[in-house]
Predict the 3D structure of the following.
Amino acid sequence: MSSNTLILGLQWGDEGKGKIVDALSKEVHAVCRFQGGHNAGHTIKVNGKQTVLHLTPSGILHPNVNCVIGNGVVLSLEALDKEINGLIDTGISFDNRFYVSSGCALILPSHISIDKIRDKKESIGTTGRGIGPSYEDKIARRAVRFGDIGNQDILRQKVELLVSYHNRLLVELYNEKPHDIEDVISEIMSYKHLYDKYCTDTQGLIYDWVKDDKSLLFEGAQGTLLDIDHGTYPYVTSSSTTAGGVSTGLGLGPKYIDRIIGISKAYCTRVGEGPFPTELFDDNGKMLAEKGHEFGATTGRPRRCGWLDLFALKKAVFTNSVTDICLTKLDVMDEFSEIKVCVEYQNEEPVYKTFRGWDSSTVGISAFENLPIQAQEYINFIEDFVGCRISYVSTGPSRNQTIHR
Ligand code: GDP
Ligand code: IMO
Ligand code: MG
């Protein structure tokens, strides 16, 4: 019997989704991305070698696993080309196993200009990858889509219309330089090989795989608190990062999702601006940042660090109908004498419960019983509080440093 699994973030991204998707990939027929774009940075570590993926699904390191970029993803051809070439150089093959939806909205150079100039004023702290403006144009029904590359006339018409509109924004509203329409068309056409090789009807593929009883894995990007509807609006990304995004972003009904694994760090981080009530500005915060190497995998920006927010986590479990939690980076908390978790809010201030630390190494421990008793108590408390089984605990960045309970 096949079983389809969704893996997504329960916080503000960077929970360790890439590591867990990679670790669970070898069991599945295909790994599919359904939203976001190259704002994501998913890190995988195998035999000491680290790979950071932005667009390619985190199943790509397993040679027999198919990888799909669904219609819900916004696509930078430049970023995709660069990433594919980099991976091919390390010996990874994309032949007959990598598929990109013809429905993906393209990220154009003018989207990136608009994103960057706007963020100077709006201060969301975006990744500057053109994600927001590209989703705006998709919703406004004027996006250029990947499949449009197959028809030169349609492509030209659509690019002319869209880039003229962007140029008006850039010149009249933001006092910036316009983009040359011919240059944009030539740039898109310089990536025609990507269209020729990888562009397809991914929904059709997924339909066939489901009919053939193949197991699929759906890989979320960003996290629940960055969701356009359910996140800390307006300090969010522009896509549906929560479970509902799978259906719209791949064209597959919700009944085909059998398990939903929500990933949460044992503490909390955030990159970019926006509220973060449990943020730490003291030595504890510094220790989390240092021990957890908390720097963004896409932009290199330092991540803000704080205690785990169980109030928010419980809500995220509901929002996504999470069936299993994976708690990551437990080892980062090894040296703390005290650990706090937020259990409620009073007058908008977090109220904490304090735990004794375990003060011993959990790095690489792969059986729950071998964890220090204080760590077991911490995990059991979280599980009871949010009302969802913690089926996986991650104790290091490598593929095998995982407890499966
Ligand atoms: P993603 O965006 O959710 O895939 O997460 P990122 O790759 O952006 O960030 C997670 C970081 O933590 C990466 O550097 C991982 O290698 C690392 N990581 C993942 N799980 C663990 C863990 O259990 N312990 C430690 N120490 N590092 C981890
Ligand atoms: P992964 O998949 C963490 C954040 C940005 C910014 C906000 C909006 O690696 O978990 P955007 O460029 O998307 O318009 O930026 O969202 N952000 C992420 N933070 N991890 C990510 O992806 C992120 N992708 C976007 O920092 O605050
Ligand atoms: Mg990341």
The chain has a mean pLDDT of 97. The two ends are 22 Å apart (CA to CA). The CA atoms of residues 143 and 276 lie 33 Å apart. The chain is about 35% helix and 20% strand.
